[in-house]
């Protein structure tokens, strides 16, 4: 009987020691192995955000330990805000849901827009294929080829919504350059606005320089559109087009433009929701930069006419923290262009 008691006590002691031992954390590779992850896109198919997101989705998985398969899923509405709100608060916070989001969202947070139900600096910024250069383009039939001519007539301009750079850029030109753009909002994405330009519904739009080259390069060659201004880094191949900052009359106006156009530093950014474990975030960031050097990725990007100048997620996060500290007077004026 005594022997049995000792044996039972030994078994209980053994079980206690096992239960007290630390649980081995699941590795990134073990977590992602055999999984399918979702790349969310907040606008409709065919535009630059969609193209970048789908290109990343096709290539990044093989650079993440465990090699998950990524599928792209469009979730449209409110210029991408519906998708970003979903990613921030509803989507699984484990690294199986990521997104390419609108690069103007940090500016919206900086100026305190209530429609935004997320904090940009709490997203995990993974990376971007390239920074962007925002442009203002007018359709050939409008009869205006530069800023001076655009001041002479009212021109309807297509926009995804008033929480989007497709709204903010032309409205800044109205305020600081004296143009007479009339906004037509509600298009699902850039491709829809392009079709509206061809049909004569609108006379122009804001778009990035890289998007024009990758999605409508024939328009540039055939002079179907005229680029009348740009914002962001100066591209070597844009020609004699003024930077929007050169149209500002005061230093504060320049600062307003820099805040509104801060998204040019973020390109078409890939982000993960706030709750993703740090080791998976680190793995995705490394995978993104490794992907950007992958010959197969570079070959497809070249075929799609997408420039590759990869931006690190860590650097993007630093810029976001910086713009949150802009003077209140600048934020207040910028709010007129980031509705």
Topology readout:
Layout: H1 2-20, H2 28-32, E1 36-41, H3 48-59, E2 69-74, H4 81-89, E3 97-100, H5 105-110, E4 124-128, E5 134-139, H6 147-150, E6 154-159, H7 165-177, E7 180-185, H8 190-199, E8 204-208, H9 209-215, H10 217-222, E9 225-231, H11 251-260, E10 270-272, H12 278-291, H13 295-303, E11 311-312, H14 313-323, H15 328-334
Parallel strand pairs: 1-2, 1-3, 6-7
Antiparallel strand pairs: 3-10, 4-10, 4-11, 5-8, 5-9
Describe this structure in words.
This protein is α/β, with parallel strands linked by helices and 339 residues long. The longest helix is centred in the first third of the chain and has 19 residues, at 2-20. Helices cover 42% and strands 17% of the residues. The chain has two domains: 28-132 and 265-334, 3-Layer(aba) Sandwich (D-Maltodextrin-Binding Protein, domain 2); 134-263, Periplasmic binding protein-like II (D-Maltodextrin-Binding Protein, domain 2), CATH 3.40.190.10. Strand 6, helix 7 (165-177) and strand 7 (180-185) form a beta-alpha-beta unit. The N and C termini lie far apart (80 Å). The radius of gyration is 24 Å and the shape is globular. Helix 11 crosses helix 15 (328-334). The protein has a six-stranded mixed beta sheet with strand order 2-1-3-10-4-11, sandwiched between helices. Residues 1-24 have low confidence and may be disordered. The chain has 15 helices and eleven strands.
